[in-house]
Amino acid sequence: MAIKRDYYEVLGVGRGATSDELKRAFRKLAMQYHPDRNPDDPMAAERFKECSEAYEILSDPEKRRSYDMFGHAGVTPGAGAGFGGFEGFGFGDIFDTFFGGGAAGGRNRRRSTRGEDLRYDLTITFEEAFTGVEKLIDVPRLVSCETCTGTGAQPGTGTETCGSCGGSGQVRRQAQSIFGAVVNITTCPSCGGEGRILRSPCADCRGQGRRQQQRRLRITIPPGVDTGSQVRLSGEGEAGFRGGPPGDLYVVLRVRPHAQLRRQDQDVVYELRVNMIQAALGDTIEVPTLEGPVEITIPAGTQYGQTFRLPAKGMPSLRGGRRGDEFVTVQIVVPKDLNGEQRALLRKVGGLTGKPEKVSRGFFEKLRDAINID
Predict the structure, then answer these.
(1) Whole-number Å distance between alpha carbons of 139 and 144
(2) What angle in degrees, to the nearest 10, is found between the helix axes of 42-58 and 19-33?
(3) Among candidates 289, 264, 288, 284, which has minimal Cα distance to 274?
């Protein structure tokens, strides 16, 4: 027989873990290894069974105390705690507690349930992210069948008690194991856990109570959104099953890059390319902003990488308040193809010493003299 791992090790917590820490650890593992999420991985089912067993013991103060004192021997049948007479390890009950039902072996009938949430990916321009925009989107989704009003039954007919489970929605099977009699509780395959079956399924939706339909929605996108931002439309997801409430629609945004500006949180950055003469002597240059071009003054002696700040020229904050700034970063462009006259002028300025040189005021004075600028 396989050796059982320590329950604290199974959940990845210390022996002094609080009930909240145990709950968080189990929730994470249950979401990762639940059989419904890993239908083709038999090891996932075993792992889910193992962590469920560990949580059932450690979440019960009496069982945990017995386990801490005597180990696995303290929670095996005959030790006053553990799994004697248990039904299906209680996995369905544990999963229902955390995730609202749906696990095999759960004791709640599957009647009306909430519809699934939907995701819609929408691409907008950089300018639309700045100003905000309204968009029309077409969303395919399941809607409640108008013919049967979501019941799944042909109008004028109804449902009847399932003969396989007697209306409980569950099938119980008993088997013998080394621990004694084990009762496995599974969802009834005939009625899908509802306890009732349709006398005459609706012809339009084939008894599903829902049908596919495309709906056009108007969405308002606020100023300041970025790639990954989400807009939630409550109640615009899939229709609920058997009259349950609808899910929500999440519109996930992608913002196209700007041709000239680059975003950093709420700030924007513009890389300004100037030639060596503009950097040396200074210039007034027009630069783009989100609200149109503006002129900035580049002072004489501007260095490569020097940055100038334009206050409140960036993106608005989604939470309100002030806008970000725009930062203009200077890049000095050195010409590659010089004619003879240009080469002569630069040689006249001097500087070909073969050694690193600290740029001084004298360099700019030589440059002015060489190109006859007062």
Answers:
(1) 15
(2) 170
(3) 284
| Confidence (pLDDT) at 66 | 80
Q: Which tokens in the block code for residue 58?
A: 């450690």
Query: Is the overall model pTM greater than 0.85, yes or no?
Result: no
pLDDT reported for residue 234: 92
pLDDT of res. 276: 84
Segments forming the whole domain that contains residue 344: 339-374
Give me the DSSP letters along 107-161.
Answer: SS---SBPPPPEEEEEEE-HHHHHH-EEEEEEEEEEEE-TTTTTS-BPTT--EEE
Q: Looking at the structure, tell me whether residues 280 and 298 fall in a common domain.
A: yes
Q: What is the pLDDT of residue 97?
A: 44
pLDDT in tens, 300-354: 989 999 999 999 999 998 887 789 999 999 999 888 887 888 788 777 766 665 5
DSSP 113: B
Long-range contacts of 14-23, Cβ-Cβ distance < 8 Å, separation of 24 or more: 15/68, 17/58, 19/59, 22/55, 22/58, 22/59, 23/59, 23/98
Q: Same structural domain for residues 139 and 227?
A: yes
Distances (CA, A) of 243 to 8, 38, 150, 168: 42, 29, 5, 20
Give how many domains the chain has, as a whole number: 4
Helix (H) or strand (E) holding 328: strand 326-333
- Which CATH number is 215's domain given? 2.60.260.20
Residues in the chain with pLDDT values less than 50: 1, 78-94, 96-110, 361, 373-374
